[in-house]
Design goal:
The protein has 437 residues and is α/β, with parallel strands linked by helices. It has helices at 4-18, 26-39, 44-62, 69-84, 110-123, 140-151, 162-170, 191-204, 221-232, 249-258, 279-287, 290-301, 308-316, 321-332, 337-343, 352-372, 376-380, 387-397, 401-420, 424-430, and strands at residues 98-103, 128-133, 154-156, 178-183, 208-214, 236-240, 261-266, 274-276. Helix 3 (44-62) packs antiparallel against helix 4, helix 5 runs parallel beside helix 6 (140-151) and helix 9 (221-232) packs parallel to helix 10.
Length: 437
């Protein structure tokens, strides 16, 4: 997927920051994030502006005590959101008929996007008409007809003159809520295309001119956006080909430079693969911060209660099997423990901690079953579990003594790891559950 490479590099920087001990790595992480953005085809001028803002924000907060790593992440997050546009931008259908003109160069995906938009608005109850104004590409009209059949939307086209097509369809515009016009493209915005688009714009009088921009353009995207914006006044941008391997940063920052907002992202070739663009959700995903929010929402939706005292004990490494049992039973409702751990930013992805998490994920059901066969004394004081008690627990749970022994062994290892670990990021995240450690 586009943005995957950029996202991976940004996530590594965030992990390094969260797992550091103190503030000495903050500048190192900022430099790494700058490099990641440049390699992701984000415009150098935009990157420099971003880095300057981050450093200024961090500097302004240093006088208020030791700057926490979580605060640095907030600074990075907020400034990235500002680059992409702080608020979610949508095409508001505030007049009828609302006329959308799609423009862009060859290969940008305008025709497919026209079909996707038509399907998107049709599902929301709007009466939609498609105009096939791409008379330069021979297969464009037929392609739009095939797409329209899948969503049961009417298409007007077939003439060699796009302006004539608009005039033919104009008398029917009053019967529709939204008119979506697919225009022709060229390899470059040459004189011929400029003349044609100007004529279409004059006759069609679009409510919204939307530039269809592929994610694989790189930093050349800025040139395209500026050229089309100077010609027509771009109101919005739709990103396409985000299911490829392109970095995508150039297309995103082109929107920032032009002032036009990204409103949709095409995530595949199918007609339903079109998503509204939300800058905050997008940046959360880039930084790997979206996973814990999903876990938190699920916990809230399912009204999962968390034993605060047990959580505190586990995080501090001062817990018994009773505390571990309570965390197991809560966690099972949210999903596999190894998958949940991977959603938490800063959680180690290798080494002893990862191995422990994987072991817990594999055996959590069996372990809770074994603990169901323990006495209150054994749960509260695991050191009291002798060989004979272990045999009794195994028989009572229906599992082997070896697995009982493994549970005890895992419990001891978790205690050791938690005591030795830097758990400030976990503590910060638990505050989102309302738990103050």
């Amino acid at each position: 997927m586009a943005f995957d490479s950029l996202a991976d590099k940004l996530k590594e920087g965030i992990k390094k920051l969260l797992n550091s001990t103190g503030n000495e790595k903050i500048e190192e992480v900022i430099i790494e994030i700058r490099k990641a953005l440049l390699e992701g085809d984000v415009d150098p001028a935009v990157v420099d502006t971003f880095i300057q803002r981050v450093r200024e924000d961090i500097k302004s907060k240093k006088g208020k005590g030791l700057l926490s790593r979580e605060r640095v992440i907030d600074v990075i997050y907020n400034n990235l959101v500002d680059i992409l546009g702080s608020n979610e931008s949508r095409i508001e259908i505030n007049t009828v008929p609302y006329k959308i003109l799609l423009v862009g160069l060859f290969g940008s995906g305008k025709t497919t996007t026209a079909g996707k938009l038509a399907g998107y608005y049709k599902k929301r109850g709007y009466r939609v008409l498609l105009l096939a104004l791409d008379t330069f590409r021979p297969a464009a009209y037929e392609q739009l007809i095939q797409l329209s059949k899948q969503i049961n939307v009417k298409v007007v086209g077939g003439d060699k003159d796009p302006v004539k097509i608009i005039k033919i369809a104009a008398s029917t515009f009053k019967n529709y809520d939204i008119i979506i016009a697919d225009s022709a493209g060229r390899d470059a915005l040459d004189n011929e295309l400029v003349k044609e688009i100007k004529a279409i714009n004059l006759e069609f009088k679009p409510t919204n001119v939307s530039l269809v921009l592929p994610a694989d353009l790189g930093q050349n995207a800025s040139i395209q956006v500026k050229a089309f914006h100077n010609l027509l006044g771009i109101n919005s941008i739709i990103l396409t080909k985000t299911d490829g391997t392109a970095n995508g940063g150039g297309a995103l920052t082109a929107a920032y430079i032009s002032g036009a907002k990204v409103v949709f992202i095409g995530t595949g070739e199918k007609l339903n693969e079109l998503e509204e663009f939300d800058p905050k959700k997008f940046v959360s995903k880039l930084l790997g911060l979206d996973g814990f929010e999903a876990v938190l929402k699920k916990a809230q939706d399912e009204n999962i209660q968390v034993n605060e005292e047990s959580v505190k004990k586990v995080i501090k490494g001062d817990f018994n099997l009773m505390d571990l049992y309570e965390q197991y039973t809560s966690t099972k409702k949210l999903g596999p423990i190894n998958k949940l751990a991977s959603l938490i930013p800063g959680m180690p992805s290798s080494g002893t901690t990862k191995e422990l998490i994987e072991k817990q994920g594999e055996n959590i059901g069996k372990f809770t079953n074994i603990m169901d066969s323990m006495t209150k004394e054994e749960l509260e004081n695991p050191n009291s579990i002798t060989a004979s008690r272990m045999k009794r627990i195994a028989n009572g749970s229906g599992h082997s003594e070896e697995l009982v022994r493994e549970l005890i062994d895992q419990y001891k290892k978790i205690k050791t790891v938690m005591k030795m670990s830097n758990n400030k990021q976990v503590s910060s995240l638990m505050k989102r559950f309302g738990i103050k450690l």
